[in-house]
Amino acid sequence: MKGSLHTDVLLHAVMQKETKLRIGRLISHCAMVSAPTYARRFVISDVALNIAPDTDQKRDICQNAIGFARALGVDRPKVAVLAAVETVRTRMPASLDGAILAKMADRAKSSEESSTDHSISTPP
Hints:
The chain is of the alpha+beta class. Helices cover 35% and strands 11% of the residues. Helix 3 links the parallel strand 3 (78-80) and strand 4 (119-121).
């Protein structure tokens, strides 16, 4: 948790090219949560770092969260893309982005050049 530390101060070292910490994707935030009323730990991602990401940036955020979960020992991470409603609505970009991301993951699974061991789902 960063508390009162300003984001620019926290990320200064990460942003420096000399540190070689960047991998070419969007930087995002991940946190592992352990809730006493839920049986499993879960990861939440990008709650405040990227204010209004587009679909490609949301893909990067998902990939970052998947990598984070794997680094913490989750063999097959499951991704849930959330929106304020339970169905895809054309007038709600967040629900459309979720459907697009789920389709992108489906296509990656069926592609011979890409082997995925994670799943992305959205409400129907």
